[in-house]
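Submission checklist for the structure archive. All mandatory fields must be present; incomplete records are returned to the submitter.

[x] Identifier: Putative gamma-glutamylcyclotransferase
[x] Organism: Marinimicrococcus flavescens
[x] Residue count: 141
[x] Sequence attached
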Amino acid sequence: MAPLFFFGTLMDKDVLSLVLQRPLEEELQTARLAGFRRETARDACYPLLVPACGASVEGSLFCGCGPGDIARINHYEAGEYRAELRAVQLGDGSRRRAWLYMARENCLKASGQPWELERWQATGKADLLAACPDWMRAFRP
């Protein structure tokens, strides 16, 4: 199974642990996706990827995920994103194919504003952590 590349709220270890319902080990590493920029979705506090020549997005590569982890993440991303397999570059310069979640065009539009993890952690993380348990309670494997 190819790893998953996170570029938004799932880069936050508290959020990812809550979604997975387990603590994280050393399963995340820094990776970069070329050809895109990260923007805030219109009328939302989370990001989407926008094609952009010469740009790249830093994110987290989640390795060692099992089928149960993937099912939980698919539930978390349900409806607004679809999984795509893309090449990402690791910190050592090597390339690897990874699954990432691209916004469904009929659901999310770009706002034109950049999305930054640190800013979201300061302004939107608490609300997501409060809402996430209810959302994930609806998960059925």
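[x] Structure attached
Curator remark: The chain has a mean pLDDT of 94. The first helix runs from residue 13 to 20.
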